[in-house]
Amino acid sequence: MLEKEGFAVSTDAVGVFGRPLLLKEVWGPAMEQSGFLGLEVLAWHHVNISKLAEQYPVVGIHGKIRASFKGFDLYKLASGPLLDFMITDTASLIEKYGTSTPYMLFHQREAGFSKNIIQQTKPIQTLFVENSPHLGSLEEAIKLISDFREAGINTGLMFDLYHYLAGISDLKEIYSSNFPELWDLLMQKLQNTFTEIDQQDTETPIGIHIPVGTRREDSLPVDQITEDMWKQLGGAIHQRPYTLVVIENQQAGIGTVMLTPFRIESQRSRNMEIFKKLLENNVIINS
Q1: Quick check: 238 and 5 in contact, CB under 8 A?
Q2: Pair 66, 84: CB distance under 8 Å
Q3: What's the CA gap between 7 and 81, in Å, rounded?
Q4: How many CA atoms lie within 13 A of 16 on its CB side?
Q5: pLDDT level of residue 77 (50, 70, 90 thresholds)
Q6: How do the domains of the chain map onto residue ranges?
Q7: What number does CATH give the domain 7-280?
Q8: What is the pTM assigned to this prediction?
Q9: What pLDDT does 5 receive?
Q10: What sign has the CA pseudo-torsion 97, 3, 21, 215?
Q11: Phi/psi at 262 (nearest 5 deg)?
Q12: Other CB atoms closer than 10 Å to residue 136's CB: what's the count?
C-alpha cells in the first residue's frame, strides 16, 4: 500500500464532536514533516470526509468497532454500542470511499461480523483489520486477513499496541510497575506476528496503531515508556519496509467528546514532546 515510509495521525485527537480542522492546532509541526502521509479519519456520521479531504490528505478511514468489554461495566456497555451507532455503516463507507481512499479499517469483530458485506461490496484499495481489545483477537484478525486475501481483497493487519495489552492484562496492571514486563511480551508478540504474516505472504500490508493519548482506557502509559523501549519499538516496526505508523491520541474527560480551546496549548505541547521521542528513536521515519 505504501510507497515510502511514513505516518498518519488519527482524528480521535479532537474527540467525537470536535472539529477535525483543529488537528492542525495540536499536531501542526508533525503534520508538516515530510513523512506525514495524512489523516486516519474516524467515520462519524456528522463528519464530511470529502470536505475534510480538501483541507488535509486522508490516508485512511476508520469504520465500525463492534466493541466488547471485560466484566459488567454499565458505562462501557452503554457507550460502546452508542459510539458504533454514530459511525457510518460498513457497506456505505466502502461504496463511497473504497476506491478513492488508500485504506479502510475495521476492528476484528466488525470485520468478522460484516465479512460477507465487505466481500460483496468491494473493491477496496486496502482493507486493514485491527485487533480488538480481547484475548485471542489478534489471532482471529490474522485468520480473517487470510480469508479476505483469498477472496481477492488486498488486506492487512493494523496491530493496535494497547489493544493487545488489554487482551492479556487489564488497565490496572498496564498502569503499574508491571508494565516493563508487559512491554517485553508486547515486543515479542509484535516480532512473532511480523514473522507469521511474512511466512504467509510478504505482500500483506501491516500498520501499527500507537495510542499516546491521556484516556487510559485506550492509551499506552507513555510516561512509563523509556528511551530504550521506544528504540526497541522502532526497531521492531521497521524490520519490515513500508510499515504504516498511525498515532492515536484519545483524550480523557471532556476531551473524549471534543477538543476545547483551553486544552489546545497543553495538548499540543504534550504531543510535540511525544512526537520528538518517536522521531529520535526511529519509531517514525521521515522519508
Answers
A1: yes
A2: yes
A3: 29
A4: 14
A5: very low
A6: 7-280
A7: 3.20.20
A8: 0.95
A9: 80
A10: positive
A11: -75, -5
A12: 12
